[in-house]
Design a protein that fits this description.
By secondary structure, the chain is mostly helical. It is built from 9 helices and no strands. The chain is elongated and about 60 Å long.
Length: about 180
């Protein structure tokens, strides 16, 4: 995305985040972004393209956030992931995953479905790299998605429980290696 598209996509992300995907009309999205209708449509020629732009912006922003300051692969990095997730959930007021919300509001969009799958697939790959053990990727993914889904109700307790389970997973793997 060029700088103009990036700014518009950031604004679209915020409008969708605060209002959801079903409600805001294109004129409301335009007003929320603060550009002319012509400019909005020049960069994102359909409502679906606007959703995709917002998701792409969110994807890059989230990956950058969770990667910042991550230790070398291993237990500390995996625990740090959940600390970062807890911080993200605080910043987003505990709302559930924007990608899942987009897909739920647009179940017939193959492009949105593909974007959600790509985002989740890249997260899964990152979790394997982060832990230093590809076999842990799906467990970390499951815990990550679980914390995201229940943070509004459990808050930091969800984060701490995920970290406890991560420590148990690493401990069991190390015990298996040395037995």
């Amino acid at each position: 995305m060029n700088d103009s598209q990036e700014q518009i996509a950031a604004g679209l992300e915020q409008v969708f985040w605060s209002r959801g995907f079903a409600e805001p009309s294109v004129p409301e999205l335009r007003a929320g972004v603060g550009v002319s209708m012509r400019t909005l449509y020049r960069h994102f020629p359909s409502r679906e393209a606007m959703v995709l732009g917002a998701l792409e912006h969110r994807h890059r922003r989230y990956l950058k956030y969770v990667r910042e300051g991550v230790s070398e692969p291993g237990l500390a990095a995996a625990e740090q992931l959940f600390d970062k997730l807890g911080g993200w959930m605080k910043m987003t007021a505990g709302k559930e995953c924007l990608f899942r919300q987009a897909l739920a509001a647009n179940p017939d969009s193959t492009e949105i479905e593909a974007t959600v799958k790509r985002h989740k697939g890249e997260m899964l790959k990152f979790f394997g790299e982060l832990s230093g053990q590809a076999a842990f990727a799906s467990t970390l993914y499951l815990l990550h998605e679980g914390v995201t889904a229940c943070y509004a109700e459990l808050g930091d307790e969800a984060v701490e429980n995920a970290k406890r389970l991560v420590r148990q997973m690493f401990k069991a793997a190390n015990a298996d290696r040395y037995s």
